[in-house]
Amino acid sequence: MATSTTRPPTGEERDQRPLDIQAMRAGAHRLLAEDPKPSVEELGTVALRLREHIVLAVPEVEEMAGRLPHDDTRRACARACIGEARMRMRLKPGATPAARIARAQRLARSVNALCDHYENLDGS
Questions:
Q1: C-alpha Rg value of the chain to the nearest Å
Q2: Residues 108 and 31 sit within 8 Å (Cβ to Cβ)
Q3: 0.85 cut: is pTM over it?
Q4: The pLDDT of residue 2
Q5: Which of 40, 44, 95, 114 is most buried, most CB within 10 Å of its CB?
Q6: What is the rounded (10 degree) CA torsion for 40, 4, 110, 94?
Q7: Where are the domains of the chain?
């Protein structure tokens, strides 16, 4: 099993490169659309890319949510989304192709949700 050595970007790197929301959503959409699903050979690469999107998005959303008041609903929702995304990152790939697709789809849903929070918290 391959492990990811992707590190979260530093604050300086985040300031220099904003998230590419369109690319992140396109990658997520590929797994959430009805057909065609990626082949078993492609699935590992697709899942890795989704994980990388989450690694990039979590610190951004976390930082924006942290600027909101502690009792703000948007802050609580964003933090719940971050927790869910981190939990999904810890899931191991299943033994069957269907289980692997289901895991990747969960990652894709987290990517979409993080994109939503990024846009909503940024005011775009």
A1: 15
A2: yes
A3: no
A4: 47
A5: 114
A6: 40
A7: 19-122
Q: Residue 94 and residue 81: Cα distance in Å, rounded? A: 23
- In one-letter notation, the amino acid at residue 37 is K
Calpha distance 91→34 (Å, rounded): 23
DSSP collapsed to 3 states, the chain: CCCCCCCCCCHHHHHHCCCCHHHHHHHHHHHHCCCCCCCHHHHHHHHHHHHHHHHHHHHHHHHHHHCCCCCCHHHHHHHHHHHHHHHHHCCCCCCCHHHHHHHHHHHHHHHHHHHHHHHHHHCC
Asked if 32 and 109 touch (Cβ cutoff 8 Å), the reply is yes
Q: Is the pLDDT of residue 115 over 60?
A: yes
Measured CA to CA, the distance from residue 84 to residue 109 in angstroms comes to: 10
Residue listed under structure tokens 């992707």: 6
Taking the C-alpha atoms of residue 69 and residue 101, their distance in angstroms, rounded to an integer, is 38
Whether the Cβ atoms of residue 111 and residue 28 lie closer than 8 Å to each other: yes
pLDDT exceeds 70 at position 43: yes
